[in-house]
Design brief:
Tetracycline Repressor, domain 2, elongated, mainly alpha, about 220 residues
Length: about 220
């Protein structure tokens, strides 16, 4: 019989930190799912605690109150998207067309645009008080995203010699295509056709930049 390997004990502080991190992630995940089910106004500390399988006091200990909890859930969803889109642009290594294509894939990645997470985005836009919180905490990320889209479109316009195109208008149209399909995620849920959504977005780009996005390979 093989001798069992004796594992060194994890220091108490490290274990406690790992448990705390897992607990907070579980609470945020439960908050996102609760908002998607009950809306912002219908979400309560107790509902979140039940979904996370922790005591209500544990939620309060980590997030103090409902408003802070909702803000943390929104920031969690927004930061995940921000990190994913930034990685997509950086991974394109300077190619504007590759960056836009990668942003399409990010936008319809099931992990990033999970129906519950999409519901959180729209929940914060649907209530005036929550919308103000969104503008205070998240609007800078939206602005950076739109600036990146305009920059990428401008690079394609210049490199591809499309002087008749306006970078701001093209970027707004592209963002609108993605946004409209996120609304479809909200309606269709898990039945949403992500492959079709990606094809539609690339078909839009093919119509604008035909040399960089050949239409034959992007038919919806």
């Amino acid at each position: 019989m093989a001798t069992a390997t004796k594992l060194a004990p994890v220091p108490l502080r490290r274990r406690a930190g790992a448990v705390s991190s897992r607990t907070e992630r579980a609470i945020l995940k439960a908050t996102i799912e609760t908002i998607a089910t009950y809306s912002l106004s219908g979400t309560t500390i107790q509902l979140v605690a039940n979904a996370a399988r922790v005591a209500a006091g544990t939620v309060i200990l980590r997030f103090q109150n409902k408003d802070a909890l909702l803000a943390a859930a929104m920031e969690s969803v927004a930061l995940e998207f921000e990190q994913a889109r930034r990685a997509a642009i950086d991974g394109a290594e300077g190619s504007a067309s590759a960056a836009l294509s990668a942003l399409i894939d990010v936008s319809f990645d099931p992990a990033v645009s999970d129906p519950a997470k999409v519901a959180v985005w729209y929940a914060f836009w649907g209530e005036a008080r929550a919308r103000q919180l969104y503008m205070e905490r998240i609007s800078s990320l939206d602005h950076a995203y739109q600036q990146d889209l305009e920059r990428l479109c401008r690079e394609l316009i210049t490199a591809g010699n499309y002087p008749h195109l306006n970078a701001e208008a093209v970027a707004m149209g592209f963002a609108g295509i993605l946004e409209w399909q996120w609304q479809e995620i909200l309606v269709s849920g898990s039945s949403f056709n992500r492959a079709h959504a990606r094809a539609v977005a690339r078909a839009y780009l093919a119509g604008i930049f035909p040399r960089e996005f050949p239409a034959a390979t992007h038919r919806p």
